[in-house]
Amino acid sequence: MSVASLAPADLLAHSRLLDSVAAFTHHRDTDALDRSLVLSLAELASARSVSLAKCGIDRCPRVESIVQCAPDAQGNYQLQVFGAGAADPAMARLSRCMESQEVHAEMLGGVPRLIVPILCEGRAIGALQLDSGMPLSASRPLVDGFARIYANYTALLSESERDKLTGLYNRRNFERHLQRLLRQREQVQQAADPGARHGDTSPPVGTQVWLAIFDIDHFKRINDSYGHIYGDEVILLLAQQMRASFRQNDVLFRFGGEEFVILFGATDETTVHAVLERFRRHIAEHAFPQVGHITVSIGYARIGTHDYPATVLDRADKALYFAKENGRNSTHGYESLSRRGVLGRAMAAGTIDLF
Q1: Domain range for 63
Q2: 259 is catalytic
């Protein structure tokens, strides 16, 4: 059937569909893409609920997060995000769909429910659930199409925002993630203290955001002694240890070479130091194939709500530089070093290039 032969109502529907696809593929950020996808599908299908389940970076067929869209009492669509620990019944349904890689359809109180796996290179990377008054014959092609477009587009985004060797986020995405964490923290702080003044530098309420930089001690010796293939293997295995050691919501980066960055939340400096020290000791005790034992040096700093990314990096890098200059295989915080007065005005910048 040609476009010219379509009825006006069909042309309008096609136009809305194209507008929706253009809207959610406009994003260059996976989190924004997820939200736009469920909202677009909900609006197109006049849905009672749309849920997008995603697996982790290792693409194991288990749900690690769900983005859900449903209308509120006024009929306006609202978005919610659930982590892996949420007691949402959709978790089990969507997990089963991802494991089986098969479409599931049922009637729930007279409302059709459709669950479609999102497949990429033969693996399930997620699943879409649509609860809508649309008949399954109409909703199935729509959800199938959105799932395929989403799979293709997220694969392209992943290539641009992640380090090819480790799968960690690359440096180009650092500022975006930092700004998002700071916005979330500011929203929490304002909700907890509505009277707080803009620009107030007093300690924030609840969780604070911290940045840690670390690199592998004497990494050049590894490359010189064993070759770059084993050096790359050390970096890859270290990235795997990072994923196993930190939480799902902690954001992990490879900045290049043997340098890594972590953005995470913690209530106080004592907790931060304990978490990073535990990771440092774990790496020192871990035996890497062929190479044996390696160590890392870590520097960290607290991030203020209105800090510039370069400023935060510089503070954490000064702490890392101090660790390197004082024996390596240690963890130091910028705030603690500043209180002790050991950084000094003439201390040179460390290893991270800020610009």
Answers
A1: 3-157
A2: no
